[in-house]
């Protein structure tokens, strides 16, 4: 007996879910990286300003 | 033997099961509201006395933008039940099924904390405190407490939208002054006629969702009278920044013109016949004066803050005077 087969619609939904999850992960990574860069630059600016 | 799995309920209902896209999360931030908040916050920063490093100023504006967006996301999480009912809001990411409510709340909460912390670390803690209070006021005082309880919801809740120029000002000076409060009052007094103009032609939407906006509770005539009263009170308040020396003659001239026109719009709204059935309020005609006033109200606010910035543009006043 074969295992239950997923419908093409379910496959495409899974692909779409994975694609959106990747996009969200990249967005979170870029936001965190931007936060670190901003804090770093702000620290330099404030140190120079005394 | 093969078996095809049935489609998910959400698929049959036409809902996305793929989670929100980046665009859906950006929509949670209410970008159009954010643009006005950023502009007024920037104006407060420009007119404040004192110097600020351009990079610190940019970070302050970023924090105001992200804080405003965070408030919008938490507002959409809390209001998801009534957003699904109203025509104006049923296409938002949560009622559309594109973003899970918990994801929207987490998103808004994280952004709120990050924006306040960054403002405190990079700019100063007075600006950060004002930003935190603004987010609290919009989410808790307006969205959770007032919005569904009283027709004065947007009168008191309007304070949340009025804080950004004070935050911008505090980013430069580190304090709150009479001058920055005058900028707050300008937006605070502008909010009721702006929102009531919208609620006149969206009355059916608000009634359907059970939100006690002024036209729903007190009727159209009483709302129109109050709109005129607020525009009359707003006119002298709009001139206070010039009187306090925060702004110059460019601002004063623009403010006089805009306030005369705004009062004209309020009179036109008062003279317009009331619409018998709120069925018209879903945007299918009627209330043309209210629609015109709503559109003008955006120009009104933009015009005042643009004039404030222009007044401080280096060399412009001398150029116009020569």
Describe this entry's structure for a reader:
The complex is a heterodimer of chains A (50) and B (322). With 50 residues, chain A is mainly α. Chain A is 82% helix and 0% strand. Chain A starts with 7 loop residues before the first helix and ends with a helix. With 322 residues, chain B is mainly α. Chain B folds into two domains: 20-175, Tetracycline Repressor, domain 2, CATH 1.10.357; 177-313. Chain B has 16 helices and no strands. In chain B, α7 packs antiparallel against α8, α7 (125-146) runs antiparallel to α9 and α13 (220-243) runs antiparallel to α14. The longest helix of chain B has 25 residues, at 54-78. Chain B is globular and about 55 Å long. Chain B starts with 8 loop residues before the first helix and ends with a helix. The model of chain B is unreliable at 1-15 (pLDDT under 50). Classes of the chains: A mainly alpha (50), B mainly alpha (322). Chain A binds chain B through residues 1-2, 4-7, 9-10, 13, 16-17, 19-21, 23-24, 27, 35, 38-39, 41-42, 45-46, 49, and chain B through 1-8, 11, 17-22, 25, 53, 55-56, 59, 62, 114, 118, 121-122.
Question: Short summary of the structure?
Answer:
Chain A is mainly alpha-helical and 50 residues long. Chain A has one helix at 8-48.
List keywords for this structure.
heterodimer; A: 50 residues; mainly alpha; 1 helix; rod-shaped; B: 322 residues; 73% helix
Straight-line distance between termini of chain B: 90 Å
Order of helices and strands of chain B: HHHHHHHHHHHHHHHH
What is the residue-averaged pLDDT of chain A? 84
* Share in β-strands of chain A: under 5%
Topology:
The complex is a heterodimer of chains A (about 50) and B (about 325).
Chain A: H1 8-48
Chain B: H1 9-12, H2 22-28, H3 31-47, H4 54-78, H5 80-83, H6 101-122, H7 125-146, H8 153-162, H9 164-173, H10 178-201, H11 203-209, H12 214-218, H13 220-243, H14 249-271, H15 288-311, H16 316-321
